[in-house]
């Protein structure tokens, strides 16, 4: 992408003209090499996407016969209070969960990047929750938070921080807090590894030069690590934001969208419409709107964070 | 890369694909068949024992798949949409209209009419299994909601265990007396985050008081009925006065019965299944069964349970019907249902030698006979959806105390959902 953008316009024109001639043997080989990727994208992205668009134009029950309704689903969507509430909640959740994941991951990455003995052990420990399935980890947290048998309440009571029992998932604030903690625990290792890879890719010579000039640790962090890490930070943030926007499992398992339907995310609402209310067509329309929203959001994020790097 | 080897590889891949296809083609069905039977897991014990008994005596085999109750309809809908329905299925009677209307069940009117005991089959099951004059399922098991109470706690609280409550005031008084027994003992329980549980146990309180949430032909919502408000106020009072445990707030049904097993709950709405479970697994708990009462008296019940039917894509519809006929026979109804304290689905067998030994089963069978069942194509969306208007109303009213607002919201959402099917 980078190279294409920088190429002078005439080269692009030449390239386009060349496409009309018979492809050379060398170009055929090239095509052959990209064929698996193209097939894969076509089969698992383009075709399902086209099918989703087609479905979204129908009243398409999970069981029964579809009928064409044009933009009907999109009209419903515009007036669907729960969708807009869910979108608002999902944005709120993303805004709340992204900073702790990122800041904690950054600090952890700095720590496990130190040349200490046994640091590998810590790297592994922080990464372990990432390999647990989200469903399994959510169930684990349901038990941890249980007001009668869960260890959290017992510990809090023994520390005299809690009288009686606290039903964590019973009210909106504590439920959201509990889910955010569980998600940070679950995903921080992944962001940490991403940032760590970026940090290790920064040439040591730059740090050495800065040290010769008398730059402090914080100075090096601010003027070398952070700027040179920007592409990695962009990647980590985009992945984290997309992940949060698509949140479903933890809410489905831990709160079932409750209390009072306050924790229904957009994907949860898509799931409910498609598989509980059997409205596949409407679910498709919701998915497409969410996808459009995510594409715009990711483009904005990348534009803000992914500028050219100059040494 | 060499040309030949590339071609050879492609041919090899194609050969493997063809071989896989050839293997998956159905072989000729002369020998005994295996009938795939799906059921929700709440009926696990009954379903498994039926399948075992059938398999031991028949050539055709029943292969049971149990699916968690809360996921059942989603799983089934997805399987049908994927073109892979089971050959036979048990389904909450409440969903039969929806699946029949979508053309997903085989009409069995003629086969059923040939059954000698057809006229004795549970009337509410038959009514729900009828769609536009066709019959699409038969009764499989029966459930009726009742009030379950702990006789030991009644005695300790100085109440007469043989005189259970007959109206809301008496439930409230008993709950106060039992809650006073200790900090960890509560007078009343309900699963506050379980939509279906509360259709089963809360609706009868309204019905018994002369109220209803849907009009006669289920075309309009009537949540503004004063008895709906009264019932919500009744629960709200017990909640604010601490007569229910805090866990009620988040129980999505997982502790529907286990809360009672602890022996620390005085009363709760439950069903026939709790009798067999309690008798078999918790013989130490001395429990009683009575009807769910109305505000000033009167009784009602939710007549539930599963119906059994043959999906439209079943591979073995005839063999599947043989199993249905066997399940409904005298011997199976008495020896496999009544003997294990499950309600028979034939009214002529409601009184039997096994039930005479336990009056609690008779009470439950009577509740079944007077029970009601809403008939709606959008039942799931109205009542059973964890994020639906029914549960939202109960939570907002009971836990937040916003009773009028809760009712207004639910009335509006019920109306919107019901309008979708009437277009």
Order of helices and strands of chain A: HHHEEHHHHHHHHHHHH
The rounded distance between the terminal residues' Cα atoms of chain A is 21 Å
CATH class of chain A equals Mainly Alpha
Shape of chain A: flat
Query: What's the pLDDT, averaged over the residues of chain A?
Result: 88
Span between N and C termini of chain B? 63 Å
| Major sheet summary line of chain B | 8 strands, mixed
How many discrete domains of chain A?
A: 1
Q: Can you describe what's shown?
A:
The complex is a heterodimer of chains A (311) and B (423). Chain A is mainly α and 311 residues long. Chain A has a single domain, classed as MetI-like fold. In chain A, 73% of the residues lie in helices and 1% in strands. Chain A contains 15 helices and two strands. In chain A, a hairpin with a 7-residue loop joins strand 1 and strand 2. In chain A, helix 4 crosses helix 15. Chain B is an alpha/beta fold. Chain B has two domains: 177 residues, D-Maltodextrin-Binding Protein, domain 2; 206 residues, 3-Layer(aba) Sandwich (D-Maltodextrin-Binding Protein, domain 2). Chain B has 20 helices and twelve strands. In chain B, helix 2 links the parallel strand 1 and strand 2. Chain B is globular, with a radius of gyration of 24 Å. Classes of the chains: A mainly alpha (311), B alpha/beta (423). Chains A and B meet through helix 14 of A and helix 3 and helix 19 of B.
What layout of secondary structure does this protein have?
The complex is a heterodimer of chains A (311) and B (423).
Chain A: H1 2-6, H2 9-18, H3 25-56, E1 58-59, E2 67-68, H4 72-78, H5 81-112, H6 119-131, H7 134-145, H8 151-158, H9 172-200, H10 204-212, H11 217-228, H12 230-245, H13 249-254, H14 266-276, H15 280-305
Antiparallel strand pairs in A: 1-2
Chain B: H1 3-24, E1 34-40, H2 44-57, E2 61-67, H3 72-81, E3 88-92, H4 96-101, H5 109-113, H6 123-128, E4 130-131, E5 134-135, E6 138-150, H7 151-156, H8 168-179, E7 186-189, H9 195-201, H10 203-208, H11 226-240, H12 258-261, E8 265-271, H13 272-281, E9 287-290, E10 292-293, E11 299-300, E12 303-309, H14 317-327, H15 330-337, H16 353-356, H17 359-370, H18 379-384, H19 389-398, H20 403-422
Parallel strand pairs in B: 1-2, 1-3, 7-8
Antiparallel strand pairs in B: 3-12, 4-5, 6-8, 6-9, 6-12, 10-11
Helix pairs in contact in B: 19-20
